[in-house]
Design goal:
Blueprint (H helix, E strand, L loop, with lengths): L2 H27 L3 H15 L1 H11 L1 H4 L3 H25 L5 H22 L3
Helix pairs in contact: 1-2, 1-3, 1-6, 5-6
Length: 122
């Protein structure tokens, strides 16, 4: 697999990830903006930066590759949040969506691996 195809797959993954996160989080908000709209936006807005960063890596790799460590750091923060969310989801909410969060965590680890490969691209 070439580095270009890995960048395309990374961009597609980040876009799908954002859409799935919104699909999972919207039912939790009960469509009541005063009560849950702000937390939804606070979580979704930073995650919208991942598709943008992978898009920049796709279209202008040489100019954007110095931001790979920032992308990786953001994914590590997301992984830490997923672990905490899984803990509270399992213990307080009675296992609502643990498989989804475990999949997101595993897929984010995969995207970190792709970033490590891209970092070495010359």
């Amino acid at each position: 697999m070439t580095y270009k195809s890995m960048r395309v797959l990374l961009f597609a993954y980040d876009c799908l990830r954002l859409f799935f996160l919104l699909a999972i989080l919207l039912p939790l908000s009960d469509f009541d903006p005063p009560r849950a709209g702000i937390p939804l936006l606070m979580y979704a807005a930073p995650n919208a930066l991942f598709p943008l960063m992978s898009l920049f890596l796709l279209i202008r790799f040489e100019a954007s590759k110095q931001y790979i460590p920032l992308y990786a750091t953001g994914k590590l923060v997301v992984l830490a949040c997923v672990v905490v969310w899984l803990f509270f989801d399992l213990h307080l909410a009675g296992m609502r969506r643990p498989l989804f969060w475990a999949f997101i965590g595993a897929a984010d680890l995969g995207s970190l691996g792709v970033m490590a490969l891209l970092k070495g691209e010359e």
